Amino acid sequence: MTNQYKKAGVDIKAGEKAVDAIKPIVKATHNQNVLANLGGFGAEYELTNVLKDIKEPVLISGTDGVGTKLMLALQHHRNENIGLDLVAMCVNDILAQGANPLFFLDYVGVGKLDPDNMKEIVNGIAEGCKLGNMALIGGEMAEMPGLYDTDEYDLSGFAVGIVDKSKILTKDNVNAGDVLIGLPSSGIHSNGYSLVRKIIDDNHLDLTTYREDLNGTLLDVVMEPTKIYFNELNPLFEKNLVNAVAHITGGGITENLERIIPDTLTAKVQNGTWQKPAIFDLLKQAGQVSQEEMDSVFNMGLGIIMAVAPENVAQVKTILGNRCYEIGQVENRHGKPVEIIY
């Protein structure tokens, strides 16, 4: 019997092999709260243990993709960490509201399903879930010839966390005098890659030769996965040491920091108080990008910015050690919501 569905471009057997390949990877992220095994119609996550110490439980959710960074991964066969990027973009968003991450679901759409390639992608997603203290409890693999070329795929993800209502982090908690503490990024993370790719293409930049200024190849640096901040933030949340958190994603420092600043206040950021990865100087110079645009597109070396009450700063620094920078403070409004002082 001929397999007409396979002739149409969908290989059911390849899908079954892919599911079998990722089952142990997914299971390694599970905990006692995960009830359903991979393959059911819906994922099951029990809340009995989670709710024990929470008076007013609130679910915090976030969904995202990895943007056009995915195109570089496809072009240069760098699929091993793109799943980690996917998880990071989702979990860092829910961490910014004080959530304790619970679980993650993914979606992968492909032109042609390759079990080995799928295993590599899901392995990155699972690694991200471990770093974010989440269980990977479900997802979807869809083979869609015609919508995607044979070697193309796309990713999206969905993270869910929980927080006691009284501990949700919002701009209402921020006060004049709060100190701004920044956590370093691992590089560009997953924002601004349409501009990154344009600069690389327009200037015919060499991606594979080792560069002293970058301490690696340009390809290695632009494909560095997005940092996940659970290990830094969770100890601070447990001790109620943070008033608000901004995840510095698309829109850069100015737009994202503004999201946690009340209408009557200004976040004053002092340039030069943190170490910027060399990649940002390279992009600025090669692309002839203004500093204003750099600040509105890229994280410029800061993946998280926290507003911290002055009396808590010393304890925050003790917990974080050398993994943070004091970059400014919150003042009464005297201009824009966010000012970067050069």
Automatic annotation (TrEMBL):
Gene3D superfamilies from the UniProt entry: PurM-like C-terminal domain, PurM-like, N-terminal domain
Similarity comment: Belongs to the AIR synthase family.
UniProt enzyme class: ligase
Major localization listed first in the record, in broad terms: cytoplasm
Claim: Cytoplasm is one of the keywords in the record: yes
Provenance organism: Holzapfeliella saturejae
Reaction catalysis annotation: 2-formamido-N(1)-(5-O-phospho-beta-D-ribosyl)acetamidine + ATP = 5-amino-1-(5-phospho-beta-D-ribosyl)imidazole + ADP + phosphate + H(+)
Domain PurM-like N-terminal: 58-163
Matches recorded under SUPFAM superfamilies: PurM C-terminal domain-like, PurM N-terminal domain-like
Protein name per UniProt: Phosphoribosylformylglycinamidine cyclo-ligase
Residue intervals passing through the bilayer: none
PurM-like C-terminal domain: residues covered: 176-335
Keywords: ATP-binding, Cytoplasm, Ligase, Nucleotide-binding, Purine biosynthesis
